[in-house]
Amino acid sequence: PAAVKAKIGNLTPLRSKRIRTSGWVHRLRDQKEIIFVVLRDGTGYLQCVLSGQVAQTYEALTLTLESTIEVIGTLKTVPDGQTAPGGHELVVDYWKVLGASPGGEDAFTNKLNEKSDPSIQADLRHLVLRGETASAVLKLRAALLTAFRQTLIEHDLLEVTPPCLVQTQVEGGATLFKLDYYNQPAFLTQSSQLYLETCLPSLGDVFCVQESFRAENSHTRRHLSEYTHLEAELAFITFTDLMDHIEAIICETTNKLLQNPASAALIKQLNPTFTAPERPFLRMSYVDAIKWLNEHDIKHEAEDAEGNVIRDESGSPVMVEHKVGDDIAEAAERRMTDILARPMFLYGFPTELKAFYMKKMPRDGAAGPTFTESCDLLMPGVGEIVGGSMRIADEEELLAAYKREGIDPAPYYWFTDQRKYGTCEHGGYGLGVERFLAWLGKRFTVRECSLYPRCATFMFV
Ligand code: 4AD
Ligand code: MG
Fold first, then answer.
1. Measured from the CB, is residue 385 less than 6 Å from ligand 1?
2. Residues of the chain scoring pLDDT < 70
3. Were both Cys, which of 32, 79, 90, 301 would link to 48 (CB 3.0–4.6 Å)?
4. Ligand 1 atom having least distance to the Cα of 223
């Protein structure tokens, strides 16, 4: 009978039928009389059994890992007690090589293995992607983006696509990638926030999934030079509404993934002990966090006026207590989330530490520092995955903020205009997709969560 052509992931309804499929040789076990091939096509893995005449050809004897082959045969349910991906195997009666892979054995067993150097892994990222873990991470990433979109749409947000080429900074001049735009200076976008704000009067609440670029010369586990930024902006809300919304989006998206058998299996594969976070998340003010760090004897590196780390005679950094006004650095933040071991909002950061557009909290008394209606969502193992805030709604206040930050207001005229033609209390947030995925899939670094990561250390592929 004619064989039905199907992808590996769709074979279950075709058991006991003759089928035809193609893929890459993922695993190969040659037992002289009989050859076992695990075939991979991106939708799944299929065990193929080659025996008798089909195992005795020249092509069979010289078959290597990663060759592409077409197989035709009968799909059999594997008996109880035996395991095969999908619970079935293909008894092959005809097959052929479509593309040979002469270097397959060497590249995939000698050069690339768990012990190979990170720089080799980076060089060979295009081959690493063929592995079971890397491909599971990317499949989970796709499911995550779909689930986020569904959740945001359920919350009545509309998706827009803002530009990547811009002439305004959002998160400070230090991390801008500058470029020449027809003889004019321009940048790669750091955040689509300002554009999202301009959509509120015409489209209502909006979100985007867009690449953001940061020239961060920091070699950390969680910084990329290009990352996927999920951002949302909401009108007529309070600061509490904003944190409630972020919490809802995170939890509902995670639950969608756990309820879907395919994505739940990926989470189980990558992060076997994962449990959905419980609401409400812990909410701790910045001032309380400073106290908490000191109570737990978590210090930070002392810096001189130029921002250089101060060292003692032995060359070790001098560690000092945190005080109000200090940035909570990555190491301290990580210690905090490791100890508390649950998602938490840190909110109310000092104005001097935060971006120009953030709304100030009502001052507590006449003197002292001002704080902003800002929040970071921290996850155990990763730290900050979301940064959000309420925005300055008043034009005069915004003009004063440009001045304080030394920003030329001219290129921001369209952003300032929002405060002239019917302003409103509004706020939003940005979520680092790779960081969220690192938390969900328990990855050591965000580099594993990006198709082709770009960061300060390398851009090989
Ligand atoms: O905290 P950030 O800088 O906030 C903004 O850009 C706001 N304008 C967003 C908004 O309100 N619409 O960045 C938001 C998030 C961070 O919490 C982090 O998860 C991620 O973006 N992020 C990075 N991820 C990977 N590599 C980097 N270099 C990142 N910088 C920020
Ligand atoms: Mg931030």
1. yes
2. 458-460
3. 90
4. 26
Domain ranges, residue 384:
132-281+342-449
384 CA: nearest ligand 1 atom:
17
Nearest of 397, 439, 393 to residue 273 by alpha carbon:
439
Length of the chain: 461
Domain at 396, CATH number:
3.30.930.10
Query: What is the reported pLDDT for 227?
Result: 98
pLDDT at 459: 67
CA distances from 157 to 80, 148, 247 (A): 48, 11, 16
Structure tokens of 414? 């369209």
Is 119 among the domain residues? no
Which three-class secondary structure state does DSSP give residue 263?
Answer: helix
Please state the domain count of the chain. Answer: 2
Contact (CB, 8 A) for 295 and 289: no
Q: Is 441 in the pocket of ligand 1 (CB under 6 A)?
A: no
Q: What angle do CA 100, 103, 109 make, to 5 degrees?
A: 120
- Burial (CB count <10 Å: 0-12, 13-18, 19+), residue 416: middle
pLDDT tens digit sequence for 157-178:
999 999 999 999 999 889 999 9
Starting from the CA of residue 208, give the closest ligand: 1
Q: Is 450 exposed, middle or buried (0-12, 13-18, 19+ CB in 10 A)?
A: buried
Q: Identify the CA nearest to 159 among candidates 226, 210, 235.
A: 210
Distance 316 CA to ligand 1 centre (A): 31
Q: Please tell me whether residues 32 and 147 are part of one structural domain.
A: no
